[in-house]
Amino acid sequence: MAERVLGAEPLGEGVAENRRVGARGRLSPSITVHLSFKFMILLAGTIFLLALLFVSLLTYSVTQKQDADLQKSIVRITDTVLADGTDDLAFLDLAYYVTYAVYETESRTVLATNDSLLPLLDSDGKSRTYFAKDFFTDSDLHIRYLTRTIEADGKHLTVECAIDIANDSAAQMLSAVPKLVLFALIPVLVLSFALSFLISRKTIAAFKTLRADYDREKAFTSNVSHELKTPIAIIDGHANLLRRWGKDDPKQLSESIDAILQATETMSGIVTTLLDMSRLEQGSIIVEKTRFAAADFFARLADEFSALYPALHITISDSDSLVLETDEQKLHQIFTVILSNSVKFAGEQCKITLSARKNDGKTVLSATDDGTGFTPDVLPHVFERFYKGDAAHNRNVSGAGLGLSIAKTLSDAIGAEIYAENTQSGGARIVVQVK
């Protein structure tokens, strides 16, 4: 008796597809976190470079303003000294943050100043920055200064102007910029990480869905081509036999015609099945619920299959006289597939028991045969498309391996659950739970 094998795609592809489908809703956290972290680092680097550019431009602008103030102030001081001497510098109106000193260049004797602690420096006519650590008892000295050498009353004098950077409001604002950027950067990075995490997750999910669909369609096309290849080869082979000597050999003519008709029927069945599955998956199927008795439903199935297979033994068990409320036509299609598989794998003389019972508010319908049952490696894959186990290699059992996959699709359409198991006596049982 043929070993029972049913279902859909070859084992390797079926398992791979199940893993893809199972993983479709579960993204690896490491992938999304890795991409989000990279995006955050990229954004942080961009913000850092922009902040650095901003600070550089601001520093340049502040320095230019300070140098302009120094140039303006030293010109006024120099003109005053040359015109009226150093005594009138006390009445000179300068900005509050500008300090100055006028001293003899050689002896470095201070003639006038508004800050006695200002160190005597020489900038060679260019604006420069001077910093002295712990210059004061409680702070450092940090100034921007400019000097100019003049001759007045027969003496060589040096005029020095300085701006205290620490007390300059513009400089204070400039020093606060890095801190502000740092504090602003933290929430921006956190927000960017969260957004990039969500975007990466959705993008990867969409990519995985597309990839799974692509792999599934690729496997589907390959399997359909493989299934159609055998009947086409049979038709081609017998057509060539007929061309060579079939016309003159009545026996060969009859055998070739029968083989061609059988192969054509097989191809037609495959195409029809694929069209039915396509309609089901596209959601174009309409579910029409009606009320009917389980016993009458089983009796109809028994009559139909007994007419086709006179040696078949079908027993009906419906102790509760259950009434179903579902799509009777589609449920009939489901059990037609189930009983056809039992006949195919357990033989036309097998015994089949149709049973109906209540369980946790659901109606449990089952078909049990006395065949060899499912092998452990086949049982998890019986509802997969094109899966035919070892029979796919020896072709002892005909069919495309689409029967129970259609039953599964129809069960989903009417809101029922279907599963397969082995009985204690070794036969196979297909169970359909109807809500």
Topology:
Layout: H1 11-24, H2 29-84, E1 98-104, E2 110-113, E3 128-132, E4 141-152, E5 155-164, H3 169-244, H4 250-281, E6 290-293, H5 294-308, E7 313-317, E8 323-326, H6 328-346, E9 351-359, E10 362-369, H7 391-394, H8 403-413, E11 417-422, E12 428-434
Parallel strand pairs: 7-9
Antiparallel strand pairs: 1-2, 1-5, 3-4, 4-5, 6-8, 9-10, 10-12, 11-12
Helix pairs in contact: 1-3, 2-3, 3-4, 4-8, 6-8
Summarize this, please?
The protein is an alpha+beta fold and 435 residues long.
Reported for the largest beta sheet, the result is: 5 strands, antiparallel
Q: Can you tell me the overall shape?
A: rod-shaped
Rg to the nearest angstrom? 47 Å
Q: What is the number of helical segments per DSSP (H or I, 4+ residues)?
A: 8
Mean pLDDT: 79
**Elements, N to C (H/E):** HHEEEEEHHEHEEHEEHHEE
Unreliable runs: 1-27, 390-398
Helix content, binned percent = 40-55%
Total number of beta strands:
12
Report how far the terminal alpha carbons are from each other: 36 Å
Strand order of the largest sheet: 2-1-5-4-3
Strand content: 15-25%
Estimated structural class? alpha+beta
